[in-house]
Amino acid sequence: MSIRRLLPLGLAAVALAAIPCTARAGAAPEPAAPPPLSPAGWQEFVESLRTLPGRMLARLPEPMRNDPQIQQELARLALEAVVSTTLETIGGDGDAPQFVPTLGQVLNIGQPNADTVYRSASITPGGSYRLRGHRGNVALAVIQQALPPTDPGRGAAAQLDLATLKVDKDGRYDVLLSVEKPAGYTGDWWELKPSATRLMIRMVSADWSREVDPTISIERVDKPVGRPRPPAALLEKRLRALPQQIDFIAQLFVGHVEKLRQEGYVNSLKVVTPPFTILQGQFYYEGTYDLKDDEALIIESAIPAKCDYRSLILTNELYETTDWYNNHSSLNGAQAAPDPDGKLRIVVSAKDPGAKNWLDTAGHPTGMIQGRWTGCDSQPIPTVQKVKVADVLKVLPRGVATVTPEQRQDIIRERRRALLERPLW
Asked: Structure pTM?
């Protein structure tokens, strides 16, 4: 039966029109369509993205590579790397700089600290810049210069602590950044390394509800203000640089948790020496965890007599920090008090044991624990004890702080509110 018999006249005409000309009897073949036009560098960028997840998966052991859950989480990590790197590429201009988000709960790359807001601004090597804003009163607000990997002074890159700057009666700071201090300049000044290409600020808050984040503006002062239309060659150069930049950040830590496991650090901790980008005076320890639903780890340590900041967080198998906005999966000095005997004890488990100092694995039976001491007079490495969740309160010392399920919900809702009210941009 023909299409004309099945359809009303008008619809039949539409259906016939939709049939390719080459399918009609006697129709001559149409010439092949030319390849779609695209900007120079775009196809290379797209091709790099097409193969990126496979290259990331190759860094994992076979059981993880074949796990659909891990595969999708790895795809998410790839997207996070794309967004973070692309955002810096679009917003990065050393002549018209601005601080844009770099890491965080959404851009969850390389295990961002739950208490830290990270922003970065591109700068032009050799340029002079002015930073202004309200200093705020967070635990730490530190700017670090990023130098090229080949720079011999990369490991000694200077850091600027906003707490060291003078402020006016309104709590505002004003600091000049340049390779050389101008003659006769009497204000706050910070020496820029001649090769510095980027500034990253870490704003670390322990008491999210009461501490106030700093504000920060940046301007280049050795050139007139203005931003002419970027030439095509510059835009193409940035586009062509993206694949390598994305590849680097996307693959950097994919196998980190598995490497720790292979070293034998399962339900145990080791000292860690991260790359050059750490805060001065910051000490890390980390190890993997592997827990059944009815098991828990008790992390126990002394607390340094002097300590500017401390925290304990969890990550998943791909080194993404476990969602701390919606789960009780991070604790710092303002949130986790010591027990009556002066020791700090934090419980890690899938089920809430009722102890106030608890880290929720949030559906990840395996992952990583990472702690940090910053500006402390000692750096203790905690001990780790595995127990049944049902026995946690029996093992912990008498008088340990506890919470009910209802109180836990209130705590999580309040921490979520406080985090969402912190400015990220």
From this structure: 0.89
Which string of b and e fits 255-268 if b means at least 16 CB within 10 Å?
A: bbbbebbeeebebb
Name the domain count of the chain. Answer: 2
Amino acid at 171: G
151 and 95 housed in the same domain: yes
| 235: containing domain | 70-248
pLDDT (tens digit per residue) in 19-70: 444 444 556 677 777 778 899 999 999 999 999 999 999 999 999 999 999 9
Instruction: Encode burial over 81-94: b for 16+ CB neighbours within 10 A, e otherwise.
Output: bbebbbebbebbbb
State how far the Cα of 353 lies from the Cα of 386, in Å rounded to an integer.
13
> Is 219 within the bounds of a domain?
yes
319 contact partners, CB below 8 Å, separation of at least 6: 110, 111, 253, 254, 256, 257, 368
**pLDDT band (50, 70, 90) for residue 154:** low
Pair of tokens at residue 414 = 């309040």
With 0-12 CB in 10 A as exposed, 13-18 as middle and 19+ as buried, what is 24? Answer: exposed
Whether residue 222 is found in the same domain as residue 350: no
CATH number assigned to the domain comprising residue 159: 2.60.120.1600
pLDDT level of residue 202 (50, 70, 90 thresholds): very high
Element (H, E) at 32: none
pLDDT at 163 over 90: yes
Residue 117 forms beta bridges with which residues? 203
pLDDT higher than threshold 50 for residue 14: no
With residues binned 3-state (H G I as helix, E B as strand, rest as coil), the percentages for the chain, rounded to 5, are 30, 25, 50
Pairing of strands 217-220, 129-134: antiparallel
For residue 140, the SS3 value is: strand
Q: Are residues 241 and 113 in the same domain?
A: yes
